[in-house]
Design a protein that fits this description.
By secondary structure, this protein is mostly helical. It contains 13 helices and two strands; from the N terminus they run H-H-H-H-H-E-E-H-H-H-H-H-H-H-H. A two-stranded antiparallel ribbon has the order 1-2.
Length: about 300
Protein backbone atom coordinates (compact mmCIF):
# COMPACT_ATOMS: atom_id res chain seq x y z
CA UNK A 1 0.00 0.00 0.00
CA UNK A 2 1.33 3.40 -1.02
CA UNK A 3 1.07 6.24 1.52
CA UNK A 4 1.42 9.93 0.74
CA UNK A 5 2.87 12.19 3.43
CA UNK A 6 2.35 15.94 3.31
CA UNK A 7 2.17 18.92 5.63
CA UNK A 8 -1.16 20.46 6.66
CA UNK A 9 -3.51 21.84 5.61
CA UNK A 10 -4.60 18.74 3.73
CA UNK A 11 -6.94 20.54 1.39
CA UNK A 12 -7.28 19.55 -2.25
CA UNK A 13 -8.80 22.10 -4.58
CA UNK A 14 -8.46 22.70 -8.30
CA UNK A 15 -8.52 26.48 -7.79
CA UNK A 16 -5.10 28.09 -7.61
CA UNK A 17 -4.29 31.35 -5.86
CA UNK A 18 -4.02 33.07 -9.23
CA UNK A 19 -7.47 31.88 -10.31
CA UNK A 20 -9.05 33.05 -7.07
CA UNK A 21 -7.39 36.46 -7.15
CA UNK A 22 -8.22 37.16 -10.79
CA UNK A 23 -11.83 36.13 -10.19
CA UNK A 24 -12.01 38.79 -7.47
CA UNK A 25 -10.48 41.30 -9.87
CA UNK A 26 -13.16 40.40 -12.42
CA UNK A 27 -15.86 40.90 -9.77
CA UNK A 28 -14.49 44.38 -9.06
CA UNK A 29 -14.66 45.46 -12.71
CA UNK A 30 -18.44 46.22 -12.64
CA UNK A 31 -17.93 48.22 -9.44
CA UNK A 32 -15.21 50.25 -11.16
CA UNK A 33 -17.44 50.74 -14.22
CA UNK A 34 -20.31 52.13 -12.14
CA UNK A 35 -17.85 54.37 -10.27
CA UNK A 36 -16.60 55.86 -13.53
CA UNK A 37 -20.20 56.33 -14.73
CA UNK A 38 -21.14 58.18 -11.52
CA UNK A 39 -17.98 60.21 -10.90
CA UNK A 40 -16.50 60.56 -14.40
CA UNK A 41 -13.16 59.73 -16.02
CA UNK A 42 -11.21 61.24 -13.13
CA UNK A 43 -12.29 58.24 -11.03
CA UNK A 44 -10.83 55.93 -13.69
CA UNK A 45 -7.46 57.65 -13.40
CA UNK A 46 -7.53 57.17 -9.63
CA UNK A 47 -8.21 53.44 -10.10
CA UNK A 48 -5.52 53.05 -12.79
CA UNK A 49 -2.83 54.92 -10.86
CA UNK A 50 -3.58 53.14 -7.58
CA UNK A 51 -3.46 49.72 -9.24
CA UNK A 52 -0.31 50.53 -11.20
CA UNK A 53 1.42 51.84 -8.07
CA UNK A 54 0.56 48.67 -6.12
CA UNK A 55 1.83 46.40 -8.89
CA UNK A 56 5.04 48.38 -9.48
CA UNK A 57 5.80 48.65 -5.77
CA UNK A 58 5.50 44.89 -5.32
CA UNK A 59 7.62 44.19 -8.41
CA UNK A 60 10.37 46.57 -7.27
CA UNK A 61 10.43 45.23 -3.71
CA UNK A 62 10.55 41.62 -4.88
CA UNK A 63 13.45 42.49 -7.18
CA UNK A 64 15.26 44.40 -4.41
CA UNK A 65 14.91 41.43 -2.06
CA UNK A 66 15.91 39.03 -4.85
CA UNK A 67 12.69 37.08 -4.49
CA UNK A 68 10.43 35.59 -7.12
CA UNK A 69 8.16 38.15 -8.75
CA UNK A 70 4.65 37.62 -7.38
CA UNK A 71 2.66 40.20 -9.33
CA UNK A 72 1.14 37.52 -11.57
CA UNK A 73 -0.93 36.16 -8.67
CA UNK A 74 -3.24 39.19 -8.89
CA UNK A 75 -3.13 40.12 -5.20
CA UNK A 76 -1.38 43.46 -5.86
CA UNK A 77 -4.07 44.31 -8.44
CA UNK A 78 -6.78 43.67 -5.84
CA UNK A 79 -5.02 45.83 -3.26
CA UNK A 80 -4.65 48.73 -5.69
CA UNK A 81 -8.23 48.49 -6.94
CA UNK A 82 -9.74 48.20 -3.45
CA UNK A 83 -7.72 51.13 -2.15
CA UNK A 84 -8.84 53.29 -5.08
CA UNK A 85 -12.46 52.34 -4.49
CA UNK A 86 -12.23 53.57 -0.88
CA UNK A 87 -10.97 57.03 -1.87
CA UNK A 88 -13.05 60.19 -2.43
CA UNK A 89 -13.45 61.13 -6.12
CA UNK A 90 -11.76 64.49 -5.51
CA UNK A 91 -8.33 63.38 -4.26
CA UNK A 92 -5.24 64.59 -6.16
CA UNK A 93 -3.76 61.91 -8.40
CA UNK A 94 -0.58 61.56 -6.37
CA UNK A 95 -2.57 60.38 -3.34
CA UNK A 96 -3.57 56.91 -4.67
CA UNK A 97 0.02 56.39 -5.84
CA UNK A 98 1.40 57.05 -2.36
CA UNK A 99 -1.37 55.11 -0.62
CA UNK A 100 -1.00 52.01 -2.81
CA UNK A 101 2.78 51.98 -2.38
CA UNK A 102 2.35 52.17 1.41
CA UNK A 103 -0.32 49.45 1.34
CA UNK A 104 1.97 47.01 -0.46
CA UNK A 105 5.22 47.90 1.30
CA UNK A 106 3.95 48.22 4.88
CA UNK A 107 0.68 46.34 4.76
CA UNK A 108 1.94 43.30 2.89
CA UNK A 109 5.63 42.90 2.02
CA UNK A 110 6.99 43.90 5.44
CA UNK A 111 5.11 40.94 6.95
CA UNK A 112 6.53 38.51 4.41
CA UNK A 113 4.25 38.91 1.41
CA UNK A 114 1.06 37.17 0.34
CA UNK A 115 -0.26 34.87 3.05
CA UNK A 116 1.77 36.44 5.88
CA UNK A 117 0.14 39.85 6.36
CA UNK A 118 -2.05 40.19 9.44
CA UNK A 119 -4.01 43.25 8.26
CA UNK A 120 -5.87 43.89 5.02
CA UNK A 121 -3.28 45.83 2.93
CA UNK A 122 -5.82 48.07 1.20
CA UNK A 123 -7.26 49.18 4.54
CA UNK A 124 -3.75 49.75 5.89
CA UNK A 125 -3.12 52.09 2.95
CA UNK A 126 -6.42 53.89 3.45
CA UNK A 127 -5.83 54.36 7.19
CA UNK A 128 -2.39 55.79 6.43
CA UNK A 129 -3.91 58.31 4.00
CA UNK A 130 -6.66 59.31 6.45
CA UNK A 131 -4.08 59.90 9.20
CA UNK A 132 -1.71 61.82 6.90
CA UNK A 133 -4.10 63.89 4.77
CA UNK A 134 -7.45 63.96 6.62
CA UNK A 135 -8.87 66.95 4.72
CA UNK A 136 -8.23 65.38 1.31
CA UNK A 137 -9.70 62.09 2.51
CA UNK A 138 -12.91 63.66 3.81
CA UNK A 139 -13.83 65.93 0.88
CA UNK A 140 -16.69 64.46 -1.15
CA UNK A 141 -18.46 65.51 -4.32
CA UNK A 142 -21.27 64.35 -6.62
CA UNK A 143 -21.98 65.90 -10.03
CA UNK A 144 -19.11 68.31 -9.43
CA UNK A 145 -20.69 69.72 -6.26
CA UNK A 146 -18.90 69.31 -2.95
CA UNK A 147 -21.20 67.84 -0.32
CA UNK A 148 -21.21 65.59 2.72
CA UNK A 149 -21.86 61.86 2.58
CA UNK A 150 -25.25 60.53 3.78
CA UNK A 151 -23.57 59.07 6.88
CA UNK A 152 -21.99 62.43 7.73
CA UNK A 153 -25.30 64.26 7.21
CA UNK A 154 -27.14 61.76 9.41
CA UNK A 155 -24.50 62.06 12.13
CA UNK A 156 -24.57 65.86 12.20
CA UNK A 157 -28.22 66.65 11.43
CA UNK A 158 -30.02 63.35 12.04
CA UNK A 159 -32.23 61.33 9.70
CA UNK A 160 -34.74 64.21 9.58
CA UNK A 161 -32.29 66.01 7.30
CA UNK A 162 -33.38 63.74 4.45
CA UNK A 163 -36.60 64.81 2.71
CA UNK A 164 -37.66 61.27 1.85
CA UNK A 165 -36.26 57.96 3.09
CA UNK A 166 -37.54 56.19 -0.01
CA UNK A 167 -35.60 58.54 -2.29
CA UNK A 168 -32.56 58.17 -0.04
CA UNK A 169 -32.72 54.36 -0.13
CA UNK A 170 -33.06 54.41 -3.92
CA UNK A 171 -30.05 56.72 -4.27
CA UNK A 172 -27.96 54.49 -2.00
CA UNK A 173 -28.94 51.41 -4.00
CA UNK A 174 -28.12 52.95 -7.37
CA UNK A 175 -25.08 54.94 -6.29
CA UNK A 176 -26.17 58.52 -6.96
CA UNK A 177 -24.82 59.85 -3.66
CA UNK A 178 -21.60 61.38 -2.40
CA UNK A 179 -19.08 58.97 -1.02
CA UNK A 180 -15.98 56.98 -1.83
CA UNK A 181 -15.53 55.95 -5.46
CA UNK A 182 -16.61 52.35 -5.02
CA UNK A 183 -18.95 52.38 -2.05
CA UNK A 184 -21.93 54.25 -3.43
CA UNK A 185 -23.94 51.61 -5.33
CA UNK A 186 -25.04 48.97 -2.84
CA UNK A 187 -26.94 47.07 -5.54
CA UNK A 188 -23.86 46.55 -7.75
CA UNK A 189 -21.70 45.57 -4.77
CA UNK A 190 -24.34 43.08 -3.65
CA UNK A 191 -24.53 41.51 -7.11
CA UNK A 192 -20.73 41.19 -7.35
CA UNK A 193 -20.56 39.77 -3.82
CA UNK A 194 -23.24 37.17 -4.58
CA UNK A 195 -21.24 36.21 -7.69
CA UNK A 196 -18.18 35.52 -5.52
CA UNK A 197 -20.28 33.46 -3.09
CA UNK A 198 -21.81 31.52 -5.98
CA UNK A 199 -18.31 30.77 -7.32
CA UNK A 200 -17.30 29.72 -3.79
CA UNK A 201 -14.51 32.28 -3.79
CA UNK A 202 -15.63 33.77 -0.46
CA UNK A 203 -17.42 32.30 2.54
CA UNK A 204 -21.03 33.52 2.76
CA UNK A 205 -20.88 33.55 6.57
CA UNK A 206 -18.78 36.71 6.81
CA UNK A 207 -20.89 39.10 4.67
CA UNK A 208 -24.15 37.56 5.93
CA UNK A 209 -23.35 37.91 9.64
CA UNK A 210 -21.50 41.22 9.18
CA UNK A 211 -24.38 42.93 7.37
CA UNK A 212 -26.98 41.18 9.55
CA UNK A 213 -25.24 42.32 12.73
CA UNK A 214 -25.12 45.94 11.52
CA UNK A 215 -28.84 45.74 10.70
CA UNK A 216 -29.84 44.21 14.07
CA UNK A 217 -27.47 46.21 16.31
CA UNK A 218 -28.26 49.58 14.71
CA UNK A 219 -31.98 48.83 15.13
CA UNK A 220 -31.48 47.91 18.81
CA UNK A 221 -29.66 51.21 19.38
CA UNK A 222 -32.40 53.25 17.77
CA UNK A 223 -30.82 53.79 14.35
CA UNK A 224 -32.26 53.23 10.91
CA UNK A 225 -31.10 49.68 10.05
CA UNK A 226 -31.83 49.91 6.32
CA UNK A 227 -29.89 53.16 6.07
CA UNK A 228 -26.91 51.74 7.96
CA UNK A 229 -26.54 48.68 5.75
CA UNK A 230 -26.89 50.65 2.51
CA UNK A 231 -24.80 53.72 3.41
CA UNK A 232 -21.05 53.94 3.61
CA UNK A 233 -18.63 51.19 2.71
CA UNK A 234 -20.40 48.31 4.44
CA UNK A 235 -21.05 46.22 1.32
CA UNK A 236 -17.59 46.63 -0.18
CA UNK A 237 -16.07 45.92 3.24
CA UNK A 238 -18.26 42.89 3.92
CA UNK A 239 -17.83 41.23 0.52
CA UNK A 240 -14.32 42.25 -0.55
CA UNK A 241 -12.27 43.14 2.55
CA UNK A 242 -13.51 41.22 5.56
CA UNK A 243 -13.45 38.05 3.43
CA UNK A 244 -9.71 38.30 2.75
CA UNK A 245 -8.39 34.74 3.12
CA UNK A 246 -5.30 35.69 5.12
CA UNK A 247 -6.77 38.09 7.66
CA UNK A 248 -9.96 36.30 8.78
CA UNK A 249 -10.26 33.17 10.96
CA UNK A 250 -9.77 29.69 9.53
CA UNK A 251 -12.89 28.03 10.97
CA UNK A 252 -16.54 28.63 10.14
CA UNK A 253 -17.49 29.44 13.73
CA UNK A 254 -14.47 31.71 14.01
CA UNK A 255 -15.57 33.61 10.92
CA UNK A 256 -19.02 34.13 12.40
CA UNK A 257 -17.44 35.61 15.56
CA UNK A 258 -15.19 37.75 13.35
CA UNK A 259 -18.14 39.03 11.28
CA UNK A 260 -20.32 39.77 14.31
CA UNK A 261 -17.41 41.66 15.88
CA UNK A 262 -16.99 43.72 12.71
CA UNK A 263 -20.70 44.53 12.72
CA UNK A 264 -20.80 45.60 16.36
CA UNK A 265 -17.69 47.76 16.03
CA UNK A 266 -19.01 49.39 12.85
CA UNK A 267 -22.25 50.45 14.55
CA UNK A 268 -20.47 51.64 17.72
CA UNK A 269 -18.03 53.75 15.68
CA UNK A 270 -20.83 55.22 13.57
CA UNK A 271 -23.11 56.11 16.46
CA UNK A 272 -20.73 57.02 19.27
CA UNK A 273 -17.43 58.19 17.76
CA UNK A 274 -16.46 61.33 15.91
CA UNK A 275 -16.29 59.42 12.60
CA UNK A 276 -19.38 58.86 10.46
CA UNK A 277 -18.02 55.62 8.95
CA UNK A 278 -16.44 52.72 10.76
CA UNK A 279 -16.06 49.83 8.34
CA UNK A 280 -12.31 50.23 7.77
CA UNK A 281 -11.33 50.41 11.41
CA UNK A 282 -13.74 47.67 12.50
CA UNK A 283 -12.18 45.22 10.02
CA UNK A 284 -8.63 46.21 10.99
CA UNK A 285 -9.43 45.77 14.69
CA UNK A 286 -10.92 42.34 14.06
CA UNK A 287 -7.91 41.46 11.87
CA UNK A 288 -5.80 41.99 14.98
CA UNK A 289 -8.05 39.62 16.94
CA UNK A 290 -8.02 36.88 14.29
CA UNK A 291 -5.06 34.97 15.85
CA UNK A 292 -6.86 34.97 19.22
CA UNK A 293 -10.06 33.69 17.63
CA UNK A 294 -8.12 30.95 15.83
CA UNK A 295 -6.39 29.97 19.06
CA UNK A 296 -9.61 29.48 21.00
CA UNK A 297 -12.00 28.41 18.23
CA UNK A 298 -10.48 25.39 16.57
CA UNK A 299 -11.68 21.88 15.77
CA UNK A 300 -10.90 19.11 18.24
CA UNK A 301 -7.99 16.94 17.17
CA UNK A 302 -8.91 13.39 16.24
CA UNK A 303 -8.49 10.98 19.14
CA UNK A 304 -8.45 13.62 21.90
CA UNK A 305 -11.02 14.31 24.59
Amino acid sequence: MKLDFSFSPHLRNKDKVENIMWTVVAALVPVCAVSVYVFGMYALWIIILSTASAVMTEALLMKAMKKENTINDGSAFITGMLLALTLPPTVPLWLPIVGAAFAIAIGKVVFGGLGANIFNPALVGRSFLVASWPVLMTTWAIDGITTATPLAIAKIEGMTAFASKNILYKSLLLGNVAGSIGETSALVLLACGVFLIFRKIIDWKIPFFYIGTVFAFSWLLGGDPVFHILAGGLFIGAFFMATDYVTNPMTGSGRIIFAVGCGILTVLIRLFSGMPGGVSYSILLMNALTPIIDRHIKPKRFGTK
